User: What shape does this take?
Amino acid sequence: ATFIRDESISGKTDLGGVDARLKLTPETELRVEVASSEGQRVASDPEGSAYIAEIEHRSDSFNTLAYVRRQSEEFGVGQQNGAEGGTFKAGVDTQLRLGEHLAVQGRTYRQENLVSGATRDAESEESRQATIAANRSFLEQKLELTAQSEFSLGGANDSVDFPNRYQLGAAYALTDDVRMIAAYEITDGEAFDSSTTRVGMEV
Assistant: This one.
C-alpha cells in the first residue's frame, strides 16, 4: 500500500494506492495496481482514480504482455505523465524469437483520449493500431537491420498522435561502445503525412 500527501501554497492532494502480484506459473505473472487521489485547491477540488492490470508471460522463445490501463484526467499529485491523463488503453505486446539473431515483434492496442474543453464538454478521439516489427543481425552481430509498421485497424485513426507509421533502420557497431545508426520513416495520418531521415552516432 502507498500513501502520498502533496502540499503547497495552492493546496494539498492526498493519493493512496494498493498493488498486488500473483505468480500464476513460473513463467507467468499477474500484476494489478489501483489508486485514487483527492485534492483541495484554491480554484477546485480535483478527484481522480487510476488502475493498471497486466499479465506477462516470459520464456526463452516467446514473450507476451497483455494490459489494461486507465487514468482519469484529474488523477495524481503532479508527477503523472500528462499524456496519460484522461485515457484508457488496452493492448497486447508480443515477441517471438525465431533464432539467435532473428525475432519478430507484434503489438496491438486500443486507446481512447478524452479531452475536456472550456465548456466542460468532452470530445472523444479513438485510435486502434497494430504493430509488426522484425530485426536481424549480421556480420557477427555488428550490423543490425530493423523494420516496423504501425497501422490502424478498421479505419480508426482519429488521433494525430497515432498515424500509420513505417520505419526502416540500420545500425553498425564501429566499436564496442559506438554505433552508426540510420533510419527512414514515413507517416500517413488523418491530419498530415511526413517522411523523416535520421543519421547519427550512438554512444
Confidence is low (pLDDT under 50) at residues 116-125.
